[in-house]
């Protein structure tokens, strides 16, 4: 890189300002930037002295973010990354005290509203929801979607946030949603580091936004490194805007408007952001602002020093072209401020930052100190001269800045040491500990779901209704009728995915509905699973009800990072400050071949806690689940049975109204000898096997959990085991996969172990994906023969004389 030798002097458009007003604005900008830098410097010290666990800061990006903040209006949205602290300060998204509260992981929503201490510092979020889970007026706020640490992960949701503006602008039926948009005028601001533009999700999102033509303003902070790896290993030509020139729009084709500006040039930055966002907002097209020559004075994070990988020339250049000294120099040369005045401003800012940090630290410790003193006194009373217990109290008292961990651990250790000496004093400590357990559950483990007034568990339960005129239809027709009814009822519903629009999806669940409701509501997309999911997240964050379709369950892997890192953790990581009630619709289970027959339930169950995982056995149950989800506000994955679309089912009279309660398992066949738990397509195999088992004198009870998350909340499985005392779990996942989860739920959570007379068994697919063809399916996934023989083996082990061995 060849450093530029002097500042540009492009003036800020201040034609309507007096020079004094202009000076006031500039000086205030510098003040915010300087305070932000001091926060970064002090934050690093707090980590290195042990008060905080880890620190990652936005030093070096202050001035570009000041310029960006000037263009950010109420109703706009940010989807950024963990360098945007100056932008957060300038827009009011985060205060300085909240910044330090997050650094210390303060678990109070009031002190740290972005995440209640659940995210490391510089992970920003605004609270879109009231305490009851209802929406605030997002048009009166400056909005920030909750940050995630995985680099580039913010890009997928950014597409949806911008796409929402397009729908609000172009669909007049949404005009009644006045708390979410003002005629679609909102811009979605994205930020990313230059190194992360190497990731696939960046290119997928950039392409999607260009195709959709949405008001997305993408800022790239280019400091020429990705931790220690320089740009020459990251980006072709070492210049992301250079290689994206093909996206530049022209008279013949749509695309992006691309801008490039240096990160230390305050006047040029202000002018560039004003022009770029004006284009984005008024013309409703995506823009890209490549901010070059950015520095990173403290290196990547507190985990290392950049002196290890930057040479002396680079470090010297960074010191000279640090954006804050450069702005300072420009202000002095432009007679905006004197040396004496700016020195006084800087001294005041340093003092303010230090005082704010101390306030945040003291407020964080205040509640813990009260708990600490209570526990010390209780331990002393229990000790009554016991040296081991007295030592516990002394060690805790000698820890001046004890964390809650030390306090609670001391209490637990005391209870263990005094287990053989019951006393009223010990009972007091037990009561204290039990009370704290409830508080700490709320502080650290609550709100995996929003649990608000629109929870799916509060949806009125309506039974499917049939009459003598109810006809038998294909499963796909039943689903189609369900979607049709709900799209007519609720204008917020939109659906999109590969082949969903024109042909109505590959299995015809949406056949004819695009023609009826228009291509704004039912839309085809490109092959881009990450941004299909991100499109759904962004729309849902802005008050819409999206159905994001992933064509086959196997393809969920291509979006797993977005589903797991972003959607599944959203309610938890904001402590119900944000919600995204997106429904991921897909299909799986039995078909043919390696890539179209997947049932990777263990992967899903392990990575998607925070989504409801719905596995309807047929389209009647699927429609009931959809009806519930459409009327509630929590995200879900619905896996339809691939081989069920052409099977005949009776069409309910109230196909768009009846509901299925999530977590409510159903006994679909009663029996007395063995309980079989299965779900999805495998249930039909189990039902077929039950007929032959009956001929062998074996009565099986079949239970369909219907959803795996939540699983059988009424403990239907355990109740069945009280009768049969024997358990078989049939699952299409790999050995030890979904079946292991079901066993854990039944045996441990429901105490089903105590009702068993013999070893619980599982029948699963093989450890590999199934080979192609009917024979491949038969020899790799549970078959009717497999189920019969597995149940028979259980009965043989129970009574060998009555059930002699088959083989």
User: What does the overall shape look like?
Assistant: globular
Major sheet: 7 strands, mixed
How many β strands by DSSP?
Answer: 22
Radius of gyration: 30 Å
Based on helices, strands and strand pairing, what is the structural class?
alpha/beta
Mean pLDDT: 95
Q: List the total number of helices.
A: 26
**In what range is the share of β-strand residues?**
5-15%
Strand order of the largest sheet: 11-10-12-13-15-14-20
Q: Report the span from N to C terminus.
A: 76 Å
Low-confidence stretches: 1-11
Tell me what you see in this structure:
It contains 26 helices and 22 strands. α1 crosses α3, α5 crosses α17 and α11 runs antiparallel to α14. Helix content is 42%, strand content 11%. By secondary structure, the chain is an alpha/beta fold.
């Amino acid at each position: 890189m060849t450093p530029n030798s002097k500042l540009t002097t492009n003036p800020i458009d201040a034609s309507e300002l007096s020079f004094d007003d202009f000076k006031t604005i500039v000086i205030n900008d510098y003040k915010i930037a300087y305070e932000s830098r001091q926060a970064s410097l002090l934050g690093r010290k707090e980590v290195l002295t042990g008060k905080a666990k880890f620190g990652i800061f936005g030093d070096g990006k202050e001035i570009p973010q000041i310029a960006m903040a000037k263009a950010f209006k109420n109703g706009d949205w940010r989807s950024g990354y963990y360098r945007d602290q100056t932008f957060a300060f300038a827009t009011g998204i985060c205060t300085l005290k909240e910044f330090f509260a997050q650094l210390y992981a303060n678990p109070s929503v009031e002190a740290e509203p972005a995440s209640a201490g659940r995210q490391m510092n510089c992970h920003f979020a605004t609270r879109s929801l009231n305490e009851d889970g209802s929406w605030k007026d997002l048009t009166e706020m400056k909005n920030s979607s909750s940050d995630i640490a995985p680099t580039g992960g913010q890009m997928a949701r950014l597409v949806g946030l911008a796409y929402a503006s397009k729908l609000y602008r172009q669909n007049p039926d949404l005009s009644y949603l006045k708390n979410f948009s003002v005629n679609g005028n909102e811009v979605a601001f994205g930020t990313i580091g230059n190194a992360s533009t190497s990731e696939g999700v960046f290119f997928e999102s950039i392409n999607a936004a260009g195709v959709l033509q949405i008001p997305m303003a993408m800022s790239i902070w280019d400091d020429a490194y990705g931790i220690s790896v320089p740009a020459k290993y990251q980006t072709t030509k070492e210049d992301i805007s250079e290689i994206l020139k093909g996206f530049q729009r022209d008279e013949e084709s749509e695309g992006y408007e691309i801008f490039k500006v240096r990160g230390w040039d305050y006047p040029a930055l202000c002018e560039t952001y004003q022009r770029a966002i004006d284009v984005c907002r008024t013309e409703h097209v995506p823009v890209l602002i490549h901010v070059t020559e950015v520095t990173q004075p403290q290196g990547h994070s507190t985990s290392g020093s950049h002196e290890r990988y930057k040479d002396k020339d680079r470090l010297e250049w960074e010191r000279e072209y640090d954006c804050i000294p450069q702005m300072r120099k420009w202000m002095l040369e432009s007679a905006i401020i004197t040396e004496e005045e700016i020195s006084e401003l800087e001294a005041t800012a340093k003092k303010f930052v230090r005082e704010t940090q101390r306030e945040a630290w003291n407020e964080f410790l205040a509640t813990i100190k009260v708990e600490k003193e209570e526990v010390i006194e209780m331990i002393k009373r229990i000790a009554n001269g016991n040296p081991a217990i007295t030592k516990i109290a002394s060690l805790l008292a000698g820890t001046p800045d004890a964390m809650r961990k030390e306090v609670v651990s001391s209490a637990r250790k005391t209870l263990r040491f005094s287990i053989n000496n019951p006393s009223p004093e010990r009972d007091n400590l037990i009561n204290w500990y039990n009370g704290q357990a409830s508080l700490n559950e709320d502080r650290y483990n609550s709100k995996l779901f929003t649990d608000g007034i629109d929870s799916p568990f509060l949806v009125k339960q309506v039974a499917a209704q049939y009459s003598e005129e109810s006809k038998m239809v294909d499963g796909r027709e039943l689903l189609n009728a369900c979607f049709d009814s709900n799209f007519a009822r609720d204008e917020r519903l939109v659906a999109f995915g590969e082949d969903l629009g024109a042909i109505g999806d590959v299995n015809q669940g949406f056949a004819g509905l695009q023609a009826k409701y228009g291509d704004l509501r039912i839309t085809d997309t490109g092959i881009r699973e990450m941004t299909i999911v991100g499109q759904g997240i962004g729309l849902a964050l802005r008050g819409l009800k999206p159905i994001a379709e992933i064509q086959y369950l196997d393809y969920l892997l291509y979006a797993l990072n977005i589903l797991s890192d972003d959607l599944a953790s959203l309610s938890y990581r904001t402590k119900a400050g944000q919600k995204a009630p997106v429904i991921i619709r897909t299909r799986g289970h039995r078909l043919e071949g390696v890539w179209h027959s997947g049932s990777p339930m263990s992967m899903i169950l392990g990575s998607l806690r925070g989504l409801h995982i719905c596995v309807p056995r047929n389209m009647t149950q699927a429609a009931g689940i959809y009806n519930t989800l459409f009327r509630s506000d929590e995200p879900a994955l619905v896996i339809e049975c691939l081989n069920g679309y052409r099977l005949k089912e009776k069409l309910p009279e109230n196909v768009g109204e009846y509901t299925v309660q999530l977590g409510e398992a159903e006994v679909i066949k009663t029996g007395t000898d063995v309980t079989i738990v299965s779900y999805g397509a495998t249930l039909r195999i189990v039902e077929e096997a039950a007929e032959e088992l009956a001929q062998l004198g074996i009565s099986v009870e079949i239970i369909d959990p219907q959803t795996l998350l939540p699983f059988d909340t009424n403990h239907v499985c355990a109740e069945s085991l009280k009768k049969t005392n024997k358990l078989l779990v049939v699952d299409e996942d790999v050995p030890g996969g979904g079946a292991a989860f079901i066993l854990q739920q039944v045996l441990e959570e429901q105490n089903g172990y105590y009702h068993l007379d013999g070893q619980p068994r599982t029948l699963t697919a093989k450890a590999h994906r199934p080979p192609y063809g009917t024979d491949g399916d038969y020899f790799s996934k549970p078959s009717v023969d497999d189920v019969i023989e597995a149940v028979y083996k259980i009965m043989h082990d129970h009574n060998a004389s009555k059930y002699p061995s088959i083989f």
